[in-house]
Sequence to fold (308 residues):
Amino acid sequence: MPEHVHKDHGVSALPSGQPARRLAWAISLTTLILAGEIVGGIWTGSLALLSDAAHVFMDVFALTLSLGALLLARRPADERRTFGWHRAEVFAALINGVTLIAVAAFIFVEGVGRLLEPAPVKGVGLLVFAAAGLVGNAAVALLLRRHVGADINIRGAFLHVIGDALASAAVIVGAVIVIFTGWYVVDPLLALAIGGLLLWGAGRLVRDALRILFEGTPPGVRPRDVARALAAVEGVTAVHDLHVWALCSHITNLSAHLVVCEGGGDAVRRAAEDALAAEFKINHTTLQLEEEPCSTGSNDVFCENLGH
Fold:
């Protein structure tokens, strides 16, 4: 009694327009910060502030890319793309991560250069512009913070903004030290520390994006645990051909073959779906019901000792 049933509680749903509106506001604010830091860097003669302006430019790029990905994800599925455009957010997150690595490399190069040849700057002016940049980045971070946990793409943009806020804070500290001590070398030292933090965040972002692109198992989900939960459903005697993967950061897919007792059908399937939703938050499932195991199982490792 083979029965193939598909359940979809997530792929067709469009994301809320609120993240897109917040990203649009964030782009506007970040563009103002960019203009201010360029003017301030030229006026004060601060290479650190101009370097931070380059970082802010990358923020504008990242935020614009994120907004574009969100708008693409809202487009409905069609005959050519039956899952829609949800993967667009993952590609955007990957690009954001790579650009973060590039920004970190730029900071390392500039930091070493300033260690070798410290340059005097207008400390008071530097302090004013850096403080304005920090306030602006804090406002952008607050706009995005609410949606960070649910969307890897917005998390990428958020990391860009946090990195720039750290850079602004470092410039503020450097400006204060320069004003009171004239010790110019503190600026590149702080820049190198910021570069290290950015590199760490970028590495995690790229890792998470690549896991989704290569259809890896989502974090926190163990296929053997999922198989045991399915096998524990009354009427299920075995599980095989189990696959779990992420379509994007907020949609997890599952397909599996369930060997069921004679007469098992919709009731068993619904119980299995409820178990997956309750224990693993997996709502997009494709379950094939069989009274005898089919001969095409390629993932039978998850069948071992799972029967009642």
